[in-house]
Amino acid sequence: MSGAYNMRLNLFYLAFLGVLLYHSSLAVVFKFTNLVCESYNKSWFQFHECRLKAVSRDRVVMNMNGTILHPVYNAQTQGKLFKRANGYKPWLLNAEVDSCRFMRKTYYPPAKIIYSLFQEFTNINHTCPYVGPQYLRGFYLKPELLLLPFPTGDYMLSLRWFFDHKLQFDTNISFVFVEDISKI
Ligand SMILES: *[C@@H]1O[C@H](CO)[C@@H](O)[C@H](O)[C@H]1NC(C)=O
Ligand SMILES: *[C@@H]1O[C@H](CO)[C@@H](O)[C@H](O)[C@H]1NC(C)=O
Ligand SMILES: CC(=O)N[C@H]1CO[C@H](CO)[C@@H](O)[C@@H]1O
Questions:
Q1: Domain residue spans in the chain?
Q2: InterPro entries given for it (predicted)?
Q3: Residue 1 has what DSSP assignment?
Q4: Which CATH architecture has domain 2-183?
């Protein structure tokens, strides 16, 4: 057996091991634990549904549904992530995104990761304007879309939605992330 072949074989096993480890580190719990929706201007945005439903031991789906009563040409989303440690503490993400610009071109990577989590479950996958029924249906969290592993913990993502720079509604989404089930 030549040295080069041996080296290739070793690299192959190393890569294989890497893939195995990667996948076992994805053996995670990543699910919703709470959801709160509130509209501050019901003449522009009304919620009809804002609910989590446990469909199996490790899958909780989110159904959210509301109506935009007048067309929206200008929208902003503020995202703030909290991690629980004696109450929720701000953690890692605190940003505002120009939603109409983002939907034309996903320009902000952290928002792109969040968007990739729910893109397939919603009808908001289009550019501005927005009007009429808006919904998320059967949305559940897929750890493989997160791209980066989180530390194990309880989190809350607070999303505040502005039309014309005026706060219209917010959605607070709590979730649990467990990096490696064997550790608990
Ligand atoms: C509330 O919504 C109306 C549209 O129905 C809009 O004209 C008004 O500016 C909004 N007010 C605030 C404080 O966002
Ligand atoms: C949204 O909620 C309304 C009122 O509950 C319901 O009639 C409608 O079917 C829902 N739409 C979706 C897509 O879930
Ligand atoms: C703006 C946006 O995210 N558009 C996407 C909507 O969904 C289709 C199909 O999945 C994608 O191709 C678009 O990029």
A1: 2-183
A2: DUF1091
A3: -
A4: Distorted Sandwich (2.70)
Nearest-ligand number for the alpha carbon of 48: 2
CA-closest candidate to residue 141, choices 77, 54, 47: 54
Three-state secondary structure call for residue 85 = coil
Using a cut of 0.70, tell me whether the model's pTM lies above it.
yes
Nearest bound ligand to the CA of residue 127: 3
Report cis status (omega within 30 of 0) of the bond before 129.
yes
- What are the structure tokens assigned to 115, written together? 């968007």
- Angle CA 134–118–65, to nearest 5: 25
pLDDT along the chain (184 residues), means of 10: 54 52 64 98 98 94 98 98 95 95 95 95 97 98 85 96 98 92 55
Pocket of ligand 2, beta carbon within 6 A: 48-49, 65, 135, 137
Give the nearest ligand 3 atom to 115 CA: 3
**DSSP 8-state code for residue 152:** S
Cα distances from 125 to residues 18, 118, 136, in angstroms, run 35, 10, 11
Using CB atoms within 10 Å of the CB of residue 146, give its burial: 0 to 12 exposed, 13 to 18 middle, 19+ buried: middle
Task: Retrieve residue 150's tokens.
Answer: 């989180």
